[in-house]
Design goal:
This protein has 663 residues and is of the alpha/beta class. It has 22 helices and 24 strands. It binds pyridoxal-5'-phosphate.
């Protein structure tokens, strides 16, 4: 632990008494602890009331540089920070980011920081952030100071709930009497606070500070309990409860054997772009958890969407019932398609519980479409080599027959038609010849083909391959000509990853059926959607599919929240920036002998090595360097959360560069 965040039920709850007491006790023990007051209001002639009083009382003097990092935002008006800063527009407004930067600097000078918030947790820091956001970003445990008076049970319980909901650790609470008791009833109320609060929270009472009649200066709280100080002693992170042995013996992980598995790393929490391992390491995430976590981890808007929906209705069967999150998400998706495709023909939506199931549903729609019309022989699909559509049997049957699992399930999987992977690259001039093999297959087998399914522009897990938009236009024309349905699997590419909201926009081609998934919920829950044009669905009849968790309200609610973030954040500029940095950092790698090719599109960067990347050794190397990157085959790739900072992304790129330079 490098610090503690002291917050209160209220302004004047007694935070500064506690802060001063803890600081004094820690320093008396010989530690190099220091005080920070990220926002101090009521500052006149350079004197910060609480901050300077504490330093004076404890005879601490500070270099100017330290003072400005520990006390970064001062305002004259003794009001809430947001208002105080608005009254002094010439000064920079406080932000969580700026405060955290200052305190990270201060952490290098001191071994422990006692950080005192302003007012209570929901006190606004600026127009969009609160003290609670600051506490979360600092990632220090909190102590809640409760002003012991009438009404404090409510304030204390609300504050503790807010802390716990934000995923912030809380050591407990301290009761503080800040005024002399007026009468006997008041004394009774105060005596009742501790037992009544203890009965309603599992968090411990750390101390009680009685009224001390010191009017002029801040009274010094002398008897800080040893148990509290023990909790604060800078100690290495608690040794993790060892997760790995049970995991190793009992749990399957993706695409690995249970008897001789690849190594796994234990991660206990994740915030923004950082994964926190149980043994205390922070890893910058380059994978967005397989395309999903586009807004970063633990985004408060997404967390709160789930919390609110969970408290109302986590799930209800979709058979014969509908609910607000499903309708809202349906509306949002149709609006979003309308906005990005100019005129969207999609009208009907099936909410599936994962990408693979969305693909199954799309295929089922296509097959039912022909059966319903009495066409019995359209039982085949046409797709591209190098594709990936999921791991269920229908989806597997259209995955690349070599890198996919066809050999493993030979004789079990239905056999479909595969055109070669498009050769003409996204950025290259179009080559007519690239489309010939596909055209030939259609001309020869169209009477058997129910649908074409492919990933537009970017083939993801089948090889991270970017191909020419004209290919899709040719596919669309040919499908129209032979009445073949066209399915786009945008499960990986949807929601901005390629630089457009949907990859099909690069080609201005619209399929008959569209699959979305992965980033749909911002990586919070499993959900996918199949969108179809009425000309398809009107001929499908009763669609024989209905997963138990179809249109799960939690997943729909958080998907709505994620789409809201896409509407309100500059994702396009962020993706553009990631593309530029990936190009700058990685283009030179193509010269290295161990590297075959480098390709970048939108927020996707790929280094194709000459040989297979040894997964275990590569991951160990990355983790040692503080990055989370998972290669497959010959490919090392990055597709980070859109909110990744430039320095974080450059560090990830550098890790890959060091690896490749030693190949
Ligand atoms: C991941 C993926 C799927 C499968 O989605 P799951 O949610 O893992 O079942 C299907 N198609 C594409 C293009 C994908 O990237």
């Amino acid at each position: 632990m490098k610090g503690i965040f002291i917050t209160g039920t209220d302004t004047d709850a007694g935070k500064t008494v506690v802060t001063q007491g803890i600081l004094h006790a820690l320093r008396r023990r010989g530690g190099n602890a220091m005080l920070s007051k990220p926002v101090q209001t009521g500052v006149r002639q350079g004197v910060a009331p609480d901050f300077d009083t504490v330093l004076q009382n404890l005879s601490i003097s500070l270099p100017a540089e330290h003072r400005s990092a520990l006390l970064p935002f001062c305002f004259e008006a003794a009001t809430s920070p947001h208002l105080a800063s608005r009254l002094e527009p010439q000064r920079p407004a406080p932000t969580v980011h700026a405060i955290v930067e200052n305190l990270r600097q201060a952490e290098t000078w001191y071994d422990f920081l006692v950080v005192e918030g302003a007012g209570g947790l929901y006190v606004p820091l600026n127009d969009t952030e609160t003290m609670l956001d600051l506490a979360a970003a600092l990632d220090f445990p909190t102590i809640l100071v409760v002003r012991n008076t009438l009404g404090c049970l409510n304030h204390a319980l609300l504050s503790l709930e807010a802390i716990q909901r934000a995923g912030i650790s809380c050591l407990g609470w301290i009761l503080c009497e800040t005024t002399p008791p007026q009468d006997g009833l008041e004394e009774t109320i105060r005596r009742d606070t501790r037992p009544s609060l203890s009965a309603r929270t599992t968090l411990p009472c750390l101390a009680e500070i009685p009224w001390q009649n010191v009017s002029e200066t801040l009274p010094l709280w002398e008897d800080v309990p040893e148990t509290l100080l023990e909790m604060l002693t800078p100690i290495p992170p608690t040794p993790p409860e060892d997760l790995l042995p049970f995991d190793r013996q009992h749990l399957f992980h993706p695409y690995t054997s249970i008897t001789a598995p690849l190594p796994v790393y234990a991660v206990s929490s994740a915030r923004k772009t950082t994964l926190q391992t149980v043994d205390g390491q922070a890893l910058t995430d380059g994978m967005a958890s397989w395309w999903c976590a586009i807004h970063g981890y633990s985004h408060p808007h997404l967390v709160s969407a789930i919390q609110q929906q969970a408290a109302k209705m986590a799930h209800v069967m979709f058979g014969g019932i509908t609910h607000p999150p499903a309708v809202a998400l349906g509306q949002k998706l149709l609006e979003m398609l309308e906005q990005h495709l100019e005129r969207s023909p999609f009208e009907h939506i099936f909410f599936a519980d994962s990408g693979s199931i969305a693909v199954e549903v799309a295929l089922k729609m296509a097959f039912q479409y022909w059966r319903k019309q009495g066409v019995e022989n359209r039982t085949k699909l046409l797709t591209l080599r190098g594709g990936y559509h999921g791991d269920t049997f229908g989806a597997m049957s259209v995955c690349d027959p070599v890198t996919g699992m066809h050999s493993l399930f030979q004789g079990i999987l239905p056999r479909h038609y595969f055109a070669p992977r498009p050769q003409c690259r996204f950025h290259d001039p179009w080559q007519e010849a690239d489309f010939h093999p596909f055209r030939q297959l259609v001309e020869e087998y169209h009477a058997e083909i129910a649908a074409v399914i492919l990933e537009p522009i970017v083939q993801g897990a089948g090889g991270m391959w970017f191909y020419h938009p004209q290919y899709l236009r040719e596919v669309r024309t040919l499908c129209n000509q032979y009445g073949i349905l066209l399915i786009f699997d945008e499960i990986a590419t949807g929601f901005g990853r390629t630089g457009k909201m949907f990859a099909m926009q690069h080609a201005e081609v619209i399929p008959d059926i569209l699959c979305l998934g992965k980033a749909l919920t911002g990586g919070m829950l499993s959900l996918a959607a199949v969108l179809a044009q009425p000309k398809v669905t009107e001929n499908v009849g009763t669609l024989m599919h209905g997963p138990t968790f179809m249109a799960n309200p939690l997943a729909c609610a958080v998907a709505c929240a994620s789409l809201e973030l896409l509407q309100t954040t500059p994702w396009q500029a962020q993706v553009q920036k990631i593309e530029t940095i990936l190009q700058e950092e990685w283009t030179p790698l193509a010269q290295l002998s161990g590297v075959r090719e480098v390709r970048v599109l939108g927020a996707i960067g790929v280094v194709e090595c000459a040989d297979d990347v040894p997964v275990a050794a590569f991951q160990q190397f990355c983790v040692r360097c503080g990055g989370w990157i998972r290669p497959f085959g010959k490919l090392i790739y990055l597709m980070p959360p859109y909110v990744i900072q430039e320095s974080e992304l450059r560090d990830l790129c550098q890790i890959v560069r060091s690896w490749c330079e030693n190949l």
